[in-house]
TrEMBL record:
One of its GO terms (biological process) is reproductive system development. Gene3D superfamilies: 1.20.1280.50. GO terms for cellular component: nucleus. Transmembrane segments: none annotated. This is F-box protein.
Length: 342
């Protein structure tokens, strides 16, 4: 997957709990020095921390200290400590690294495969979404989001929930879309020179698509959707999301009715759109791959994420923008940019 830029701002080490004792001083080193083991625990990954905690109640108490899991979470996500959280860090770590993704909660039957891109931060409450990965000279100022998309292929979102966000690249079956002409199974069989009917064709399609991202060139031709899926770190832990009360809403769509060399998209914190840490995302030659490289590529920085997939000859793209808002504050907690060949 893509690389992460190393900025000047580094992860701050979390303060360890101090050892307390009724004695005024320790006469000799103690293997049960809590402060020492707290520091050691910070060098372990999540699985190792759980294993250490299972050895004794004493180690369980040490490992479950908030500073340990906060440090592990920020370290493994490779982001700075950019906001306060409403949940314990051990739960946030499990949510981030438990192997879950947004389609695991809903539309499981339509999901094909996914890849974790990485994590980034929203310091401001405004996001800039774009599909051409060309740094704009100025931000669009149309009266509606749809007009922004039609005129510039980009748009601005407000009231973003600040903090740490996680980005994934999803591959989704074409029935998710609302294009009446979509028939991925038929197109796939045709591309492969196969002539199957009904159930035979469906079974053949399933077999051919069993290794989705290795056959990504074939998949994207077959009418499936590529989705840049970003969410706030806390989303999976919120009650409204778990109960299914929060849904994705379409905020705009856009068609490019001509050949495009690639399907790309990006999500940026507007505050850092022109920052040096974001500039590498716009240097496409450094990360998108050669024209005949059909594997999807992605790059994430501290305040932005972008994807790119090179395409064969085509008639254009259908692009949709979805957001999910929290039921209590109305803040945007998830963003999706989906792309499908016309």
């Amino acid at each position: 997957m893509g690389k992460r830029l190393r900025g000047a701002k580094s992860i701050c080490c979390c303060a360890s709990p101090r050892f307390t004792s009724s004695s005024s001083s320790l006469s000799s080193f103690s293997w049960h020095e809590e402060d020492v083991w707290t520091e050691i625990a910070k060098y372990l990954d999540g699985k190792s921390l759980v294993m250490l905690a299972s050895t004794s109640k004493w180690f369980l108490n040490v490992v479950m200290d908030e500073s340990v899991w906060k440090f592990a979470c920020l370290r493994d996500l490779q982001v700075p400590d950019c906001s306060e959280t409403a949940f314990k860090w051990v739960k946030l770590y499990a949510s981030a690294f438990g192997g879950g993704h947004s389609y695991a909660f809903r539309q499981k039957e339509k999901h094909i495969d996914w890849m974790r891109i990485g994590a980034f931060c929203f310091d401001s409450r405004d996001a800039f979404l774009m599909e051409n990965l060309t740094c704009p000279s100025k931000l669009p100022k149309e009266d509606t989001m749809q007009n922004m998309l039609n005129s510039y292929g980009s748009c601005v979102l407000h009231n973003i929930k600040t903090g740490i966000w996680i980005a994934d690249l999803q591959l989704v079956r074409c029935p998710v879309c609302d294009l009446n002409t979509c028939d991925g199974e038929k197109v796939l069989a045709t591309n492969m020179g196969l002539k199957f009917e009904n159930q035979q064709r469906k079974e053949a399609t399933k077999l051919l698509c069993c290794n989705s991202f290795l056959n990504y060139r074939l998949y994207f031709l077959a009418g499936t959707m590529q989705v840049l899926d970003a969410r706030h770190l806390e989303l999976f832990l919120t009650e409204g999301y778990q109960k299914g009360n929060w849904e994705y809403k379409l905020v705009g769509s856009h068609d490019i009715r001509k050949h495009v060399d690639s399907a790309s998209g990006g999500i940026f914190d507007i505050k850092y759109l022109k920052a040096s840490s974001t500039a590498e995302l716009f240097n496409l030659k450094s990360w998108v791959g050669k024209p005949n490289d059909w594997q999807p590529k992605a790059m994430v920085t501290y305040h932005a994420v972008a994807i790119n997939t090179n395409l064969q000859e085509n008639e254009g793209l259908h692009i949709k923008y979805h957001v999910m808002t929290s039921g209590d504050t109305g803040e945007i907690v998830s963003i999706r940019i989906s792309q499908q060949l016309l």
